[in-house]
Amino acid sequence: MKGNRIIMGWFKKKSKQDRKTPSEQKTHKATEVFEEDETVTINMFQESDEGIPGYPAGFQSEPDSGFVRHLRKGLSKTREFLTTDIENLFKSGTTMEDLWEEIEERLITSDIGVQTTMDIMENISKKFPKISNPDQLKAVLKEEIISLLNTQTAAPEKATAKPHVVMIVGINGVGKTTTIGKLAAKSSDEGKKVLIAAADTFRAAAIEQLVIWAEKAGADIVRHRDNADPAAVAYDGVEAAVARGKDIVFVDTAGRLHTKISLMEELKKIRRALSKKIPDAPHEVLLVLDATTGQNALSQVRLFNNAIGVTGIALTKLDGTAKGGIVVSICSTFDIPLKYIGVGEQLEDLHDFDPALFADALF
Amino acid sequence: MFDNLSERLDSVFKKLKGHGKLKEKDVEDGLKEVRIALLEADVHYKVVKKFINDIKERALGQEVMKSLTPGQQVIKIVNDELTKLMGASHEDLNLSGPVPIPVMLVGLQGSGKTTTAGKLAVLMRKNGRKPYLVPADVYRPAAIKQLKKLGDQLDVPVFPSDAKKDPVKICREAVKKARKEGYDTLILDTAGRLHVDEELMTELVRIRDAVHPSDILLVADAMTGQDAVNIAKSYDEILDIGGVVLTKMDGDARGGAALSIKAVTGKPIKFIGVGEKLNQLEPFHPDRMASSILGMGDVLTFIEKAQSVVDEEQAAEIEKKLRKSQFTLEDFRDQMVQIRKMGSLTDLLNMIPGFSKNKQMKNLEVDERELVKIEAIINSMTPRERRQHTIINGSRRKRIARGSGTTVQDVNKLIKNYTQVMKMIKKINKGGMRGLGRGILPF
Ligand SMILES: Nc1nc2c(ncn2[C@@H]2O[C@H](COP(=O)(O)OP(=O)(O)OP(=O)(O)O)[C@@H](O)[C@H]2O)c(=O)[nH]1
Ligand SMILES: [Mg+2]
Predict the structure, then answer these.
(1) Is the ipTM of this complex over 0.85?
(2) CATH no., domain B301-437
(3) Do A74 and B288 touch (CB under 8 A)?
(4) I need a labelling partner for A128 at 20 to 30 A (CA). Which of B14, B39, B76, B368 fits?
């Protein structure tokens, strides 16, 4: 905070002395130097008619399993838009450079990230002498990605505790509440007795939303008034679950940006409230990520994990055209397993994560 | 990872001393770093490619000016071009045509439409209009209730939508009702939907054709990755949007999606959402966005915020003290109170280029709740202690801790921080701002 204050004082003076238009002010020094630079008009995509990822159609993989089909449901309409025909890359006339660029583009446009893309490409180039056809290339790419997705020591969570307490966290609008609805339904189907704690007391109508999901999923819900203390709701939830002999508790929390320190403190408080009733609760902290998110997802994982310790990730909205490739970077950076994927807005649109299927959907 | 483009460029150009012209090799090396920075900011692959190609020509043969290093020179060119690309100036909402004027919000699930609807209502009312909120999301559980609650909170009327009705019908009826009851602007909050969902996209077209909104805003998340181009392109092709609202800009996303969206649709970004509170919607400034995408912070917004809160005279006074290194704990506290008025500290600090990189700054944890504590501690000091912190010995520390309901460690920490600040002030007074920001601060 001290830095802030000093800088304020400093700005004060600076901004007074060269208050012009904002852009002049910002590049003040530079503006003096370059007065009339010629204008370069950048007319992206307007002159060429190649649409964004304007790929040729025709990519067919092995016969799709029902699940891959489901995953691709949303893609089908824009398939030609999105799928690179890797086979085309081996056509005559394609240079090595084209090939590499195509692979790079493919990886980057999946949101895999620059660093991870470079790593993958380096590894592939080592194996490349042995690659002579598109199927091999595809196989090697998939293999590489699957190995990155598998780095974590995935010890499947055994819900031995009773009740097993799961806290759901994430930034605003990623799909926390919907995922709870889906998870609750899944547990109910497995014959478990489920309770949901409505600890998002902040967002307007968040509780009402969760009540509807709880009903659909056949779960009990513990709720307080709007703006009540979320930690108190969490505590009451666990207490009720114990009293009613529930098997599993899901705690919904308000969406919050990972950069807001005071809101992250609130999460810690909720966490502490849970462990007050059951010492080793929460047994899981599930971070929900939106597949549409780009590189910022890494920061989300880092900061949520630093604040409260994340035990698993759910990746939602994979039914859109976003590939969610950032999870490849996440899995290779953090020791946190990707557990679920969301592929729609209905109760049944949640699946266990499967690295092979995921890699399949990427290429 | 590669946060600071300036630093990276500096290291690329380290060898390059003197002020010659930028040579092809220099430019290429530099632009490689720029490319990575843009990709890491989530600008779409192809948008980056085109941009880098265009800029290369522009940069070749330029003089490296005395006051700039080659790195800064490249940044300056890149920054200018990015700014140009994102639009010359702020474009406002289009509110033309016969009253009542509908404005339609569209976008993916969870992008922030409902909150933005509330924020727009606040803005419109401030501009003397009479907004009418229309919940047209009949799909997501309790979505109508959410907007109703926001409206009640703001005291803005909300159309009583029924989740069992067709959204097109809801919007049409809302227009009629607005006309009858004298509301001049309708804000239509539609359900989130995927751009590839034909059925639901058609529904949006039907709403548009039924009520003829004067503006259609695509609400998109600033954290959106490479898919932003697909989303924006589809929405624009299907609906012919009027502009974009970029939400969640208060996080640490660099917002490359802004550039991607602008590049594929040509439509202006009109507003940015910078917080959960309903007054946290700001006009979009292309130049600021450019430096955010480049990872250079947002100095301007910070300056403006500081200006709007800090009392001019007091600021001059404090500056005088800073210059003379006579900044007491009392001034420290006064500044703290001002800072708190400015909103989230962390947000503000994030806007300062080089801040997170600065080693001294790095260990200065910023915690908003800490401010309350700090204020309490300073309030528990005697006036003399505040002016002369060196007299605060062990027993005084204990007393202060007791008085402020904190611990001696808290008091120690504060005094340590304060002395660190004083050291920095002295350094600044000696070496100017450059000593702080490694010469990358653009002022
Ligand atoms: N297409 C699609 N939409 C989803 C998925 N998961 C959630 N959604 C939608 O995303 C929107 C936001 O979901 P919520 O569950 O309310 O998200 P949240 O994280 O609880 O939001 P806040 O509590 O407001 O932070 C809703 O419209 C959901 O229907 C998914 O897997 N696919
Ligand atoms: Mg929620």
Answers:
(1) no
(2) 1.10.260.30
(3) no
(4) B39
